[in-house]
Amino acid sequence: MPAKESPFRVNLKILPSAQRNELTGYENGLLKIKIAAQPEKGKANKALVDYLSELLDTPKSEIEICRGLSGRNKVVAFYSLSQADFEAKISAILRGS
Questions:
Q1: Mean pLDDT, rounded, of the chain
Q2: Contacts for 34-42 with beta carbons within 8 Å, 24 or more apart?
Q3: What is the DSSP code (8-state) at residue 53?
Q4: pLDDT in tens, 4-23
Q5: Model pLDDT for residues 37-52, shown as the tens digit of each residue
Q6: C-alpha distances in angstroms, 8 versus 20, 42, 80, 83?
Q7: Collapsing DSSP states into helix, strand and coil, what is residue 14?
Q8: Max CA distance (Å), the chain
Q9: Does residue 3 lie in a domain region?
Q10: Alpha helices of the chain — where are they, by DSSP H?
Q11: FRET partner for 57 with CA separation of 20 to 30 A, picked from 8, 41, 49, 51?
Q12: How far apart are the first and last CA of the chain?
């Protein structure tokens, strides 16, 4: 299996048990995301990866939670998405485009 490229990493603040999945913006340098799933047995983590995959049109296999599996603050790596592409997509979503 070929080695993956060096990933782009982003710091997130996750708010589980929300009414719906929603990207809410930046807070203290962290991208804040509401996730509807409960924070038990990895449900919120799986829902986060699913949501990011859908939101950013990136395969789930190319998204990895590197730190914060049991906390709200997480570091997520994207193996097939550049920082520029990530920022452009997030900006467009936050602007409502």
A1: 92
A2: 42/69
A3: H
A4: 568 999 999 999 999 999 99
A5: 999 999 999 999 999 9
A6: 26, 23, 8, 6
A7: strand
A8: 40
A9: no
A10: 43-56, 83-95
A11: 41
A12: 38
3-state secondary structure of 29: coil
The answer to whether residue 15 is domain-embedded is yes
Percentage of the chain surpassing pLDDT 90?
Answer: 92
What does the angle CA 28 – CA 25 – CA 44 come to, to the nearest 5 degrees?
A: 95
Full residue range of the structural domain in which residue 81 is found: 8-95
pLDDT-derived band at 94, boundaries 50, 70, 90: very high
pLDDT in tens, 60-82: 999 999 999 999 999 999 999 99
* Token pair of 59 as six digits: 């395969």
Using DSSP bridges, classify how beta strands 8-15 and 73-78 pair: parallel, antiparallel or unpaired: antiparallel
Q: For position 59, which CATH number holds?
A: 3.30.1200.10
Q: Is residue 50 within 8 Å of 60, Cβ to Cβ? A: yes
